[in-house]
Design a protein that fits this description.
It contains 10 helices and 2 strands. By secondary structure, it is mainly alpha-helical. The longest helix has 20 residues.
Length: 218
């Protein structure tokens, strides 16, 4: 529990969001409730309703926070590393690698991805909706790559992203998947190489040689 009650709205909102994260990491989704979150934050539970319109609103705000889920800008990059400056294959490969790295930096996202495999609850549903909104926002900023390749770039990316989700969730309890290491940075460096190869071989332009060279922009 926080030692002192926050004195203004911004501090109170921050304390409540941090309380959700602390309870999730320590006790899991079942521990989340108006009373437990307010107690953890050291504030009156009425403020959850005043500032977030209840627990559902608080959970939506938590799911949208950059501490839990990456921002579109984090994946998009800027300057010469902006995904929009790259070829279609490099764009999707590099974006997927950045996405995997961003999720691995967020232990709570990993926890919720794992819960999503075995349980449907308010938070996993909010995360699903947030993830879909996030992906749609990213797509709106991307060039239309459908003309650059005979493959389906969005479908390909979703299949690879699903694999990333599973491997990240599995890494909570297991260091490998059928011998494929998923525990260390070195393990994930190998996975990133595989992601680049898959993206380039599937989404390369109509060039029989194909370019499978890994982009340096990740």
């Amino acid at each position: 529990m926080s030692p002192a009650r926050p004195r203004n709205r911004r501090a109170t909102e921050r304390a409540l969001l941090e309380a959700v994260g602390d309870l999730l990491s320590r006790e899991g989704f079942a521990s989340l409730g108006v009373n437990s979150v307010a107690r953890e934050a050291g504030v009156d539970k009425v403020l959850i309703y005043r500032y977030f319109d209840g627990m559902a609103g608080l959970l939506r705000a938590f799911a949208a926070s950059e501490g839990f889920w990456p921002s579109v800008e984090e994946i998009l990059g800027e300057g010469s590393a902006d995904l929009r400056t790259m070829t279609a294959a490099d764009r999707w490969a590099t974006g997927l690698v950045r996405y995997a790295r961003a999720l691995r930096r967020r232990p709570l996202a990993r926890e919720v991805l794992a819960w999503e495999q075995v349980e449907k609850n308010d938070l996993t549903e909010i995360l699903r909706l947030r993830r879909e909104e996030w992906f749609e926002e990213l797509l709106r900023l991307f060039p239309d790559d459908t003309a650059a390749t005979a493959a389906d770039p969005v479908g390909t990316a979703l299949v690879i992203a699903t694999s990333i989700h599973y491997l990240i969730a599995r890494s909570r309890l297991h260091p490998d998947f059928n011998g494929l290491g998923i525990d260390t940075d070195a393990d994930w460096s190998r996975i990133e190489e595989i992601v680049h190869a898959l993206a380039h071989r599937t989404l390369r332009a109509d060039d029989p040689a194909g370019n499978t060279t890994r982009s340096e922009h990740a």
